[in-house]
Amino acid sequence: MVKNSIQKLSIVGLGNVGSHLFDAFAQENIEITHVVTRSEPSQRVRAKSEWIQDPKDLPSGQLVIICVPDDLIASIIAEIPVDCPIAYTSGSVSLSNLPKRDELGVFYPLQTFTKDSPINIFEVPFFIEARSTDFASKLFDLAWVISRNVNYASSADRKKMHLAAVFINNFTNHLAHISKQYLDGEDLDFNHLKPLLKETARKLESQDPISIQTGPARRNDQEIIQEQIDALENPIQKELYRLFSKSIHQTYFND
Amino acid sequence: MVKNSIQKLSIVGLGNVGSHLFDAFAQENIEITHVVTRSEPSQRVRAKSEWIQDPKDLPSGQLVIICVPDDLIASIIAEIPVDCPIAYTSGSVSLSNLPKRDELGVFYPLQTFTKDSPINIFEVPFFIEARSTDFASKLFDLAWVISRNVNYASSADRKKMHLAAVFINNFTNHLAHISKQYLDGEDLDFNHLKPLLKETARKLESQDPISIQTGPARRNDQEIIQEQIDALENPIQKELYRLFSKSIHQTYFND
Lengths: 255, 255
Fold this sequence. Notes:
In chain A, 45% of the residues lie in helices and 13% in strands.
């Protein structure tokens, strides 16, 4: 049984990530003493935490978890009392690019969060990093309270995981948008695609994508490929189709 | 209750689609009298059907479902006795591009099938088309025996659904391959991405992809975008990343 030494903390930013961490900690009886947000948080949050707007007012000596966009992290750190340990949740910001602090670390959940969409946080992989082994270990134990998938990772490895996540999540989601927009424009129902989308994801949980690839590009069916490119109107989508076909061809026909 | 008039049929081709249809019909006590395949089918199939290698030997007057690659459909049709009604399972081949027959139709399941991976065929959307209303209606009723999602669709609409399916399935799967290949090459574990992949698909079942897009391109974070492009080695993958970012930018920033 891991012993977690952090029983109180504050959170800066209650967007998609911050609000899910808030709920996860609250659920496990970790006290969130303060939340820092520009606009007033919900009644639910205010019932459990004190709302402040200025990071300078955070209690000294107590952990602060920063859940703000990447380009705001450095400036927020500068405003937090110097004796507060700090962790931030970004996938891409290197520890070495931030101002030196006694205790500064990373608490990165590799998942896509939407504010009002519940998630099983116990399955979410967390990646921990800090300059001191001692602080890294404390953050590890804290993550272990809310997840059973906690790992140490260097900034370099965390960036690599984030890049892969962009392909799996951001680009996949955009492919779904392109499909939906195309079918909407043709007065066809995107719902017909949902069983396929579900099956695509289900297969990927247990099978290697390289072995289950199907479709015109996998068969090198140039006639269908050209027909489908011609059917698209948006030049960027035509080019995406062309590139995917080229990339699939390269994968299976070694050219 | 729909009355299905087709109680016996034959199947040409037992690949990913044919083998799933075989099992689905067998399950519902539709008799598959003959299967036509080049190599010997499994004992399981031979216990229920007669194996033949030449389509000329198919019983006359009885429905044949053709489950072969698109470019072989026309030549197989030419070999089947002229009084056999025929349906084929392709998403892309137009009815009007095939040789005229008395009864020729389409029986297209919009799903990705893998031979040994079970699937809930009751949820799979089927798209039916035929030159005669009467034959279309018979194929509709036959599809209804194995699925509760059966629709009529013209060749043009079927092609559009197939194009959208290529984005949702083929390209999504290839994105997963790119992620996995990249992480494998960096000695990182693709399994860490699986909860994210699962959540991405779960969200898309109930939410509009346009409203849940996240990531560097959605935030127009040019620094991270450039860093991630630089981290990729394969030129096609770099270009895919660039194009996705451009397409996402176009979607959200109207340029």
